[in-house]
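Weekly puzzle thread! Below is a chain. First person to post its structure in token form gets bragging rights.
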Amino acid sequence: MTALAQTKTRLGLLSLVVSVALVAIKFYAYHLTRSQVVLTDALESIINIFTSGFALYSLYLAALPKDENHPYGHGKIEYLSVGFEGALIFMAGAYILYSATGSLLHPHAVDRPGWGVALLATTAVANLGLGLYLVRQGKALKSVALAGDGQHLYIDALTSIVSSGALLLVAATGVVRIDGGAALLLGGFILVNGGRMVGRSVAGLMDETDTAVVTEVIAELQAHRRAPWIDVHNLRVQRYGANLHIDCHMQMPYYYSLEHVHTELHDIEELIRAKFAVEVEMFVHADPCTFAACSLCRMADCPVRAHPFERAVVWDLHNAVRNERHRL
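Winning reply:
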């Protein structure tokens, strides 16, 4: 296992251990208070244990090397992890809405709200700190599983803060329906966020274009563009966990030898690999130029030029991804 994979695994294990400890605290807070909003918070948090465990397993699988059955690696499992987490959160939100509706219609007294506030505030601080840390590390390590797990903990901290506020209001006003109303609002919030996580998972599994990464690739090619790189098109980027698979078509002078073309393509691939801190697998398909490309070709000493150079096409997100050669 690489150092990067070990770091991800340690973070995933940390999330799992903290989730178990905080869920125990929240259920103890419910035992003391018998508050619906505290139960809502605890039920949402118990999902953390299952999702953190699955995220840890997905990080282990994502770190496995390529094999005959998985030629692009195992990184896609991280998107499945996010979808699994989102689905569980969505189901928890639906149940919480059902339970909170009953509590709102038939409210009951809240016991020892002070203890509930103290315990939930403790869990909120822990979840907020760890959640923000995991989101930051997930982005730095290009791990959607870690980032998704961190976002869930961050959301869990927000629910604990709202739950604490509801208990304080109940204690201050004596209106017990505030407890059920707050639980109802939290249930809706949890439901929406679970749905969003499922949407991100589906987008990743369906290879939805990562606009930011594609823009970076195009900008790097444009910044280091050489005259023989006449035109680039059909540029695509697929993400497999942290790793990237990039392919494109590059139009080059048709009279170049195979060795010369190979050297140019190798330079392009190395240029892009050096740009990203993750593993990049890049394939460039070479297309021979045609006389129709002369007007946008900057080859100064071209021996077969049929038309004078007019202007170069600036590669950007709108033209480099199209599956067609550029024309003036």
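Puzzle host: Confirmed. Bonus trivia for everyone else. The two ends are 50 Å apart (CA to CA).
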